[in-house]
Amino acid sequence: MTAKLGQNIADAKQILIAEDVVAIPTETVYGLAGNALSLKAIARIYEVKDRPKFDPLIAHVPDIHAAEKLVTSFPKAAKILAEKFWPGPLTLLLEKKDTVPDLLTSGQPRVAIRVPNHPLSLQLLQELSFPLAAPSANPFGYVSPTTALHVADQLGHKISYILDGGKCEVGLESTIVGFHNQKITVYRLGGISIEDLEKTVGKVEVQVNTSSDPAAPGMLKSHYSPGKKLILGDISENLHTRKRQNVGVISFSEEFDVPKENLFILSKNSDFKEAAQNLFVALRSLDRPDISEILAEHFPENGLGRAINDRLRRASV
Length: 317
Ligand code: TXA
Ligand code: MG
Prior knowledge:
Blueprint: E1 4-6, H1 9-17, E2 22-24, E3 31-35, H2 39-49, E4 58-60, H3 64-68, H4 76-85, E5 90-95, H5 102-105, E6 110-114, H6 119-127, E7 132-133, H7 148-155, E8 161-163, E9 175-180, E10 183-188, H8 194-201, E11 205-206, E12 229-232, H9 235-240, E13 248-251, E14 263-265, H10 272-285, E15 293-296, H11 304-315
Helix pairs in contact: 1-6, 10-11
The structure holds threonylcarbamoyladenylate and magnesium ion.
């Protein structure tokens, strides 16, 4: 099978109604989508991604109203966040109804839900009568795709259609938030910063687990792996000790003395948003046979810098 790339919503819809999978664009990363209420479609997603069944999937819906249909309650803080950030890079963990398959949530009592902010996928969701389960459209453990070609490169032989919505605007996965006893907990840093969440609902707790324990889904330590050793630290120092090697460099805004094709400056103007957009492209591009290692540096620990650091750290494990 070779995936067709296109912008035909009717084609995507037909495949999804037949309980098969389609790659879809979102503002964060591309997703591998299937009917979230169909066991057959969910099983296909796990199979295509080679993903262990203990790692649950996010349900994508067109609006808050559709989200409400999947849950037994919608806490006030969750409502405020949904109203403020949807459509957008925010995923809410809410108590699921029995109609939501256990296979989707890996047996967890909560279901992860979000409304993606991309015109093609929003229209697709509006036209469908069911939500779409969609993990990032990469083989399990690899860097998430931010263009349709990234998806085609890795999953193109396994799926029939990729809805091509161009380059993802955010470039990092959604921020995942849960609610318990009046407490708001962030389980994955992502496209909405902690500062933006706190401006809206007050103090949140950050519980970004880095265990390799399958009982802590969504927080697997080694993830977003570029397939090359990534060394996180002072780039100049690390370059110095690797003079005779052909290393790749991912810097925030500075130039380094390495061949042009080995250097990715994420944002010459030190803009977090631009840096986030380019991060996964850089990690993928440097996953080349001639590159021995990738050198990267820590970002300032605020705003999207925190989420960027989180991905770099996981990529370096
Ligand atoms: O931006 C995104 O969130 C992208 C786009 C496609 O929407 N999706 C994405 O999905 O990143 P995925 O499957 O690659 O990552 C979702 C994370 C997983 O690590 C999973 O363990 C966690 O969310 N998750 C999903 N459902 C959960 C649940 N019911 N309880 C706890 N964690 C959950
Ligand atoms: Mg993923």
